[in-house]
TrEMBL record:
InterPro entries linked to this entry: GrpE, GrpE_CC, GrpE_head
Species of the source: Actinomadura yumaensis
UniProt-recorded name of the protein: Protein GrpE
Region (Disordered): 1-59, 194-214
Methyltransferase in keyword set: no
Subunit structure: Homodimer.
Function: Participates actively in the response to hyperosmotic and heat shock by preventing the aggregation of stress-denatured proteins, in association with DnaK and GrpE. It is the nucleotide exchange factor for DnaK and may function as a thermosensor. Unfolded proteins bind initially to DnaJ; upon interaction with the DnaJ-bound protein, DnaK hydrolyzes its bound ATP, resulting in the formation of a stable complex. GrpE releases ADP from DnaK; ATP binding to DnaK triggers the release of the substrate protein, thus completing the reaction cycle.
Keyword GTP-binding appears in the UniProt entry: no
Gene that this sequence comes from: grpE
């Protein structure tokens, strides 16, 4: 008589039984039906989210995109602020350099006045002439400009009127004489040109100049 349990013991002797409990079939990459029935109910329809994981992943992606947009805006603002900072630094460096150079050159103006007076009196000769011309060339390279010429229109922003008169020879308020030249660096005036000013004579038609000071 055959023992019903004998076949079971024979199967156990053949080797261990390995059951593949992976939910995703490694060959078809589809979701397997659960053992014991009810698999059709557990198997999600094609394209349908499984176990609520897809909506959570979508929310996480949306949050990451929002954070990326915010960080991009922060980076753009930071870049703009840095560009403005560099511009301010360069501008301030230029202003500091101009102020330092202007301070030094301002101390040299009396010496340049002496050189100019010596030239006007034909006393700029010999070694004094060489030194004077070298100094003028050096300050010129630093941006110092001498201005103020007889006959040019009077400009109160760059001229300082020390004398005033009338003349039938002018059609507008003009510099009739330069008493002391002016100096500037670019648009910055170190010292205004000190001048005598002549205005058109309202009472004379081609006559003699009116007395100065009237």
């Amino acid at each position: 008589m055959t023992n019903p349990a004998g076949s079971g013991e024979g199967e156990e002797r053949e080797g261990p039984v390995i059951r593949d409990r992976r939910r995703i079939d490694p060959e078809t990459f589809t979701v397997r039906e659960a053992e014991g029935g009810g698999g059709a109910a557990e198997t999600p329809a094609p394209g349908a989210p499984a176990g609520g994981e897809a909506p959570a992943a979508g929310e996480e992606v949306a949050a990451l995109k929002e954070q990326l947009a915010e960080r991009t805006l922060d980076l753009q603002r930071l870049q703009a602020e840095y560009a403005n900072y560099r511009k301010r630094v360069e501008r301030d460096k230029g202003l500091l350099r101009e102020q330092a150079v202007g301070s030094v050159l301002n101390e040299l103006l009396p010496i340049l006045d002496d050189i100019g007076r010596a030239r006007d009196h034909e006393e700029l000769t010999g070694g004094f002439k060489s030194v004077g011309e070298a100094l003028e060339a050096t300050v010129g390279k630093l941006g110092l400009e001498r201005y103020g010429e007889k006959g040019e229109p009077f400009d109160p922003t760059v001229h300082e009127a020390l004398m005033h008169g009338y003349s039938a020879e002018v059609t507008e308020t003009s510099v009739s004489d330069v008493l002391q030249p002016g100096y500037r660096i670019g648009e910055r005036v170190l010292r205004p040109a000190r001048v005598a000013v002549a205005e058109p004579d309202p009472n004379a038609e081609g006559g003699d100049d009116a007395p100065a000071g009237e």
